[in-house]
């Protein structure tokens, strides 16, 4: 299958830097209802920044991507014949499943998390300093929180509470069931964190998060500041004591992370390539000792085709690894799927740079994809691993 894209990518992000309340501040959170449809999508005013809308040309319509017909050519198998990826092989997709653009109007979308109880998806629009909410029942889009402290990665713990990484807050927070916000981590060794980027929660309640410096590099996606930490670490927050400990300290820029369904593997993206051409652009995998709160046996799981990087990663119930791809060759923009042993199964082509993804839907079989200015979704024949 050849590269199927027939759509202008129009990547116009002004900065490669990306990726992040207390009760009093929570009162300032706006719950502005914005009904999004194709006509309105192009005219939604940016709420956190001033100036011109992100796109100056006609936006892509919502719905299936233009030019698509079943089977959707945006779903590419790495191999022909089973085990494969597309409609004719490995059954990741049925023939009538297609990539859809379900919402647009953002400057940089990242950090999706699905709440099954409410059938909605939350995700960050970092430069606009807001968390958006996409309601799955009718496609209604609204602002969940603004200001969001330039939130980036979001996840959900086993009690159904929102966990958020904040750039300008330089902290990880938890939104309690009553709506109040608790600071989970904002310092290590008495010094402020850089700009927490992405988080995952294991079944024991421990929160694992990455802390690169993207969110303090300027004023577009956070507040410019000098790092106080010597390194860009991956941390674990103990579920009982709340103690913050370093798990890994040898990443250039630790970014997205995911846990295998058996909780025996931890995957972490390194987007260090943004800091220099000789730096990594890959996913590393570790043996995970959940009880001990430690990792070991670091290996490179998958190399990305530089200059592309992978910002986010998720597992399905069979341990396959799904990751984002973006910032390089537009032909590589989208999602990749790997076997647990690292064999590439296939790609989902998206007409914008992709940051993060997560499984949602009532059967956890709908893959939501944050692609720059838009939210994409595709039903799959697999199910996401995370069971909040
Ligand atoms: Mg990220």
Give a written overview of the molecule.
The protein is mainly beta. It has a single domain, classed as TolB, C-terminal domain (Neuraminidase). Helices cover 2% and strands 37% of the residues. It is built from two helices and 29 strands. Strands 1-8-7-6-5 form a five-stranded antiparallel β-sheet, with no helix packed on it. A five-stranded antiparallel β-sheet has the order 2-4-29-28-27, with no helix packed on it. The chain has a five-stranded antiparallel β-sheet with strand order 3-26-25-24-23, with no helix packed on it. It is globular, with a radius of gyration of 19 Å. Mean pLDDT is 85; it is low at 1-57.
| Integer average pLDDT | 85
Q: What class would the helix/strand composition place it in?
A: mainly beta
Radius of gyration: 19 Å
At the fourth level of CATH, the homologous superfamily is: TolB, C-terminal domain
Q: Which spans have pLDDT < 50 for at least 5 consecutive residues? A: 1-57
CATH topology: Neuraminidase
The share of residues in helices is under 10%
What small molecules does the structure contain? magnesium ion
Annotation field: number of helices? 2
Strand content: 35-45%
Instruction: Report the strand count.
Output: 29
Shape: globular
CATH class: Mainly Beta
Question: How are the SSEs placed, and which strands pair?
Answer:
Layout: H1 23-26, E1 33-34, H2 38-41, E2 63-64, E3 75-77, E4 100-104, E5 109-115, E6 120-125, E7 130-135, E8 141-145, E9 151-156, E10 162-166, E11 171-175, E12 181-185, E13 187-188, E14 191-192, E15 199-201, E16 207-210, E17 234-237, E18 244-248, E19 254-259, E20 265-270, E21 282-289, E22 294-303, E23 313-315, E24 321-325, E25 334-338, E26 344-349, E27 356-360, E28 366-371, E29 374-379
Antiparallel strand pairs: 1-8, 2-4, 3-26, 4-29, 5-6, 6-7, 7-8, 9-10, 10-11, 11-12, 13-14, 15-16, 16-17, 17-18, 19-20, 20-21, 21-22, 23-24, 24-25, 25-26, 27-28, 28-29
The structure holds magnesium ion.
